[in-house]
Amino acid sequence: MRNLVVAMVALALLLGLPEATPAPKPPKIDKKVASERKTAQSILKSLSLRDRVAQLVVGISYGDVPSTKSPEYDMFHHWIKDLHIGGLIVINRVQYGLVRYAEPHAMALFLNQMQRLSKVPLLMAADFERGASMRVSDSTKFPFAMAYGAARDLEETRYAGMITAREARALGIQWVFAPDSDVNNNPANPVINIRSYGENPDDVAANVAAFIDGAHSDPKNLVLLSAKHFPGHGDTDLDSHTDLPNLAADLDRIHSVEMKPFEAAIAHGVDSVMTAHITAPSIDSAHVPSTVSPKVLKGLLREELGFKGLIVTDAMNMAGMTQQFAGAEGAIRALEAGADVLLAPPDPDAVIRAIVAAVGTGRLTRQRIDESALRVLEAKVHVGLMKNRLVDLDAISTAIGSPEEADHAQNVSDRAVTVVRNENFRNQGAAVPLAAPDQACLIASSGIRLSSFGQRMADEFHRRAPHARVVFVDNLLPPVALDAVFGDASTCSAIVFATFTTNPMLSGDLAPFVRKLTDGPVPVVFVSLGNPYLVTPFPKVAAYLATFNTATTGELAAVKALLGEIPITGKLPVTIPGFGMYGDGLQLPAKAKTPAYPAAN
């Protein structure tokens, strides 16, 4: 027999035939993963078809504690006790034009209450792109992502990821919809801008990877993360909350730019990917939102990029989805396309009924539902919800908002400050740092009325320059009112116009007002804490300073930079047309040691 085998091999070599290769060994499955899957499969077997569908639904909540006698509580009770939905997302409540942030203990109490109602533990989610402070008061005020892009310190990005995971788990959140993985290379983008790490795909990818590594670094605070918004919302000029944007780039560009951060996220073990309600004609010519495109989700994300985790839709109540597919139709199409989790459908009852009916008619298969339901259950097992779904309310004060975390957040905010213009205005010296702060005039503009933006900046500026003139303006003031509020500009040694808006342009009569100031005899320092591109219509400004961060840490950093208390070391993470290219940034030393100021009220 042995001689026969040798003879066959020799004959194969003589005839130039390939040798037989052994069958590939099946890949080894991690024991922990195998155990988690076994547990999830056991839970899945116990669920009816309707309950398996319900596991794919995540409803909206606000993180406060409604009365058990209120209609709002009745709604949550119905979703969880009757419908058996899979989870909740905590968003900000907006009342009377003001954004309200959840109190941390109240939020955790509410989430504990909801967990106790549910037979299968709930996945609790939140958009903690800049830590819990995006939704919760009294937590660390981490800067926006673009500030990290300007500061250029991946260790700080890792730290932000680590603390975000810790804060999330302390509050009862197991699923963090971050990091934002969009490459913001479109100055007209109205919804991403400073949520992105910048316009350079390699730098964005490095920060995305660092955030994921940090958030996954502590097994005791394990969270699910989500790279968003696939296939890339950065090169669009519409807001998918209110319209259906279009990613017009060709396939080569999408692979070389938009895909890089998502590839990095997948390589670093991101748990989920969130879809974008945008069209991408070079991927799918059907002109439908990517959320319902099999070519985007199955073809590009699953097959080309090899992603095996959860695919979650962006909120299903956004106009980018509802313009074409309102109600349950969008949910069914998203599942057909390959999505696993339906985020914030307007009517969970109707969606669950429609999906069950679609299985009955054969439009969706039970196997398709089971695939997604199993992924959801595996995720719940992975983060330990089957062992402990509740959080310790007494531990929250220790877990969030420590001085050390605040120092990190402020340090990044300080180092992110970027100056790309600083002219010697009429031979009076460079505009920044301010030569005579007590004679300067600060105009803080939130861009909208009823906003707290600018209050920290005004307070800190007044502490340092008690005689400086500080005024607040908004986009609803007509020209006469703007002039009356501000008064005589000629008495100012310098005018600092600070804007907090993330919109693509100053609205109302603010733009003509600023242009009039730049035509005057006093140097104008334009400070953008929000959208960094807002300065482009004002070529006559004497100086331009950006923080890429509307949080209070950005307000303090701006004041310290204006007064020369900190060195200015930031570099542009994006190109500002007419002002600076990516990577530009004037490096300015601190003028003096920070003096002692009276304590803030």
Explain this structure.
The structure is a single chain. This protein has 20 helices and 16 strands. The chain is 38% helix and 11% strand. Helix 2 (31-45) packs across helix 14 (366-382) and helix 7 (154-171) crosses helix 8. By secondary structure, the chain is an alpha/beta fold. The model is unreliable at 1-21 (pLDDT under 50).
Note the main attributes of this structure.
single chain; 601 residues; alpha/beta; 8-stranded parallel β-sheet; 6-stranded mixed β-sheet; 20 helices; globular
The gist of it:
It is built from 20 helices and 16 strands.
Terminal CA distance reads 94 Å
Low-confidence stretches: 1-21
Category from helices, strands and their pairing:
alpha/beta
Mean pLDDT: 92
Question: Helix count, per DSSP?
Answer: 20
Strand composition percent: 5-15%
According to DSSP, the number of beta strands is 16
What's the main sheet like? Answer: 8 strands, parallel
What Rg, in angstroms, do the CA atoms define? 27 Å
SSE layout and pairing:
Layout: H1 2-15, H2 31-45, H3 49-54, E1 57-61, H4 71-83, E2 87-90, E3 93-95, E4 98-100, H5 104-117, E5 123-126, H6 145-151, H7 154-171, E6 175-176, H8 201-215, E7 224-230, H9 251-267, E8 272-275, H10 294-304, E9 310-312, H11 319-322, H12 328-337, E10 342-343, H13 348-361, H14 366-382, H15 396-399, H16 403-416, E11 418-422, E12 441-445, H17 455-464, E13 469-473, H18 479-486, E14 495-499, H19 510-518, E15 524-528, E16 543-546, H20 552-562
Parallel strand pairs: 1-2, 1-10, 2-5, 5-6, 6-7, 7-8, 8-9, 12-13, 12-14, 14-15, 15-16
Antiparallel strand pairs: 3-4, 11-16
Helix pairs in contact: 2-14, 6-16, 7-8, 7-16, 8-9, 12-13, 16-20, 17-20
